[in-house]
TrEMBL record:
SUPFAM superfamilies: Winged helix' DNA-binding domain
One Pfam family matching this protein: MarR_2
Name the UniProt record assigns to this protein: Helix-turn-helix transcriptional regulator
Signal peptide annotation: none
InterPro entries from the UniProt entry: HTH_MarR-typ (IPR000835), WH-like_DNA-bd_sf (IPR036388), WH_DNA-bd_sf (IPR036390)
Gene3D superfamilies: Winged helix-like DNA-binding domain superfamily/Winged helix DNA-binding domain
Domain HTH marR-type: 15-62
Domain of life: Bacteria
Length: 102
């Protein structure tokens, strides 16, 4: 049996990070699409978006029947060892954008 026969039991990025990256890639994406892309439930994505909103990592603007998400890329990581670094570094890596230096 090879490692490719079994799905991974852990990943390097949390679901919160993956949702943030998906919203950075497409600010008008539907949360249902984010859920499918990441492999989690839509309800879990909704809860994560609510967490990120409350923590100041994103804002939402209602446009008709859709939401548009804007990220606060100057917000810093929550873990103390990375607390002096902005999340723009993570987003830049996964969206291939130069979002500035810390």
């Amino acid at each position: 049996m090879s490692a490719s026969d079994h799905p991974p039991t852990w990943t390097f990025l949390t679901h919160h990070a993956r949702v943030l990256v998906e919203l950075a890639r497409d600010p008008e994406v539907r949360l249902r699409e984010v859920a499918v892309s990441i492999g989690i439930t839509e309800r879990t994505v909704q809860n994560i978006v609510a967490d990120l909103f409350r923590a100041g990592y994103l804002t939402r603007e209602r446009i008709g029947r859709r939401n548009r998400y804007s990220l606060n890329l100057d917000q810093h990581f929550r873990y103390p060892t990375e607390g002096d670094l902005p999340v723009s570094l993570l987003i830049g890596i996964f969206t291939n954008r130069d979002l500035g230096k810390p």
